[in-house]
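=== RUN LOG ===
request id: a7f3
mode: sequence -> structure
chains: 1
length: 295
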Amino acid sequence: ARLARRAGGYGTLAALAEGRFAGPLDGPCRSRLAIIGMGAAGAALFVSLVRRLVTEKERRRDPDLLRRMQILLVDSHPLPGSAQPYGPERTESTSLLHAPAGEMSIVADDPDDFCNWLAAKAAAGALADVLGAACDLGLSPAAVDRAALYPRVAYGQYLKETIEVYAGIARDHGLDVAILPGRQVIADRAAESGPGRILELSGPCGVERIAVSSVCHTAGHWLERGAGGQPRPCRFAALGEPGEVLVMGSGLAAVDAAHEVLLHPAVGRLVRDRGRLAYEPARPGWKVIFLSRDG
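=== RESULT ===
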């Protein structure tokens, strides 16, 4: 919950995630909680909510307790966990996580959850396929190592499968979970009358308006500037003639942007040269420039 920013009724979600179950679980009214963004932060919040809500149901011994609640999982990408920087359509398979596997669990009280997921893939003989080019190039080991760095694309698959597992657990306990992929939030405003929020989502069915009790925004992707200086999701498909790419910032998100530029087919690729990893430019003349206020 600490990873998410406040939006309207976020205090309710924070209270739920921390185990204080006032409000939505008390009284006859059905509550609808929306989590915007199904990357690592959104998935971690969802897992925490499900675990704590199920625990509260068992503590109260009320089999119908969670039937008064619905959780909406909203993301602009087609699959949960596939958002930048974990989606295969946006992230090179050689792009690695910034932290070792032993620190990447999204289950708060099980630090080995991600490692256990990797171990299950290894036991099924599927780990090398999951790791892809990162394994082929020797960037990630073809075995489970808590201290190793693994591909972000593999982590995205872990997020997707973990969300699916906990959505199933929630439904088994009567908690309705609706996954809404391919939806972009175009408005999040207070309800005209009474408590709650109104979400406007642009998606496959056009614009949808949904009334919710609480909203928690957990999306955190890097942006490029579009027309009029407005931010928009970064797209580098138009890269063509060699030139300069300006990146505002020099943190991890800026490194991600540079990584995507440098591994664009028009710019270059990673290869193995006599057993050593090397970078092979497609054409000379490309330059990535970082700008930082902090020097």
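=== NOTES ===
The chain has seven helices and 13 strands.
Helices lie at 10-17, 40-60, 113-123, 127-131, 133-136, 152-172, 252-262.
=== END ===
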